[in-house]
Specification:
Distance between the termini: 63 Å
Order of helices and strands: HHHHEEEEEEEEEEHEEEEEEEEE
Shape: globular
Structural class: alpha+beta
Strand content: 35-45%
CATH class of one domain: Mainly Beta
Largest sheet: 7 strands, mixed
Oligomer: single chain
Amino acid sequence: MDHASPLSIRALATGRAAATRALLFILLFGTAALACAAPLPADDAERDCWISYTRERTQTNLKELTNVDFSNLRNGYAVSSPVLVEFAVRGMGVVPAGKLLKGTGHHHILIDSRLPASISDAIPFNDKHKHFGKGQTATLLDLPAGRHTLRLLFADHEHRPYFVFSPEITVDVLGKRSDTPRPKIDPKNFNASCAAWYQDEISRPRPPDEPLYFSNLRAGEAVTSPFNVRLGVDGFGICAAGQSAEKTGHFMLELLTRSGHKPVQSIDLSNGATQTNLAAATGAYILRLRFVDPANGNDVLKPNELPIEVKGQERL
């Protein structure tokens, strides 16, 4: 009788372990959470890699009251095209272009371009200046291979820039995603291979079955309090209360105990913000994300419930 190779035995053991974790997850969190929230990677090495970046993704920024930046990309990332670009704003809100409301605006991406010299002139419409006047929280950029600079710039209802922009970042586009092999993690060279896998993973187009999502957290992830939560929606735009536009809404975020779903905090981001900071005691929680109609408060999409664990506290 042939004996199984060590590789096949390890693969079988890994598969059984993943199945066991999935069953345990369902028992603990329920199928509704599984159906809504993106899970942690099933592969052990990929999960360990993802978790190694948790603190970076959820680090709070308490120095800048008004802040706009990329939710998923960092300076120096190597990515494939099309590249997912997610953006977040705090301290101001999002409203579609053409809608006048104090303290709001919409996102623009500057590609291989400097900041405008004038804040009184509208941002031009061309391939170097991408406009997101429908209140979008993300986009897919089809960039040619090579090195590119990206910067987010927030602007008013007439596309005139505020003095609110992200640091400029540089990304290296390796080529077309369809022609570029997906990075794999090598346990013998974990740090370098993890970095390559993570940068590809975080910049991949999102699956279409989760229109309302947490952009920086996955189901079952453990965080240190206080932590930053970034929110996104596909197929809809953000519109702060006080204005209205077709296919828009704003976020509401609730922190619930995992046992009994008792409310701990409720944050109404009716100002059009797409990120917020949370502080919670050590324990197990559910983050419930809602996307509501500014006019009546009704849910536009099915709420997304994400289980998390607060594992510790950071002294500020």
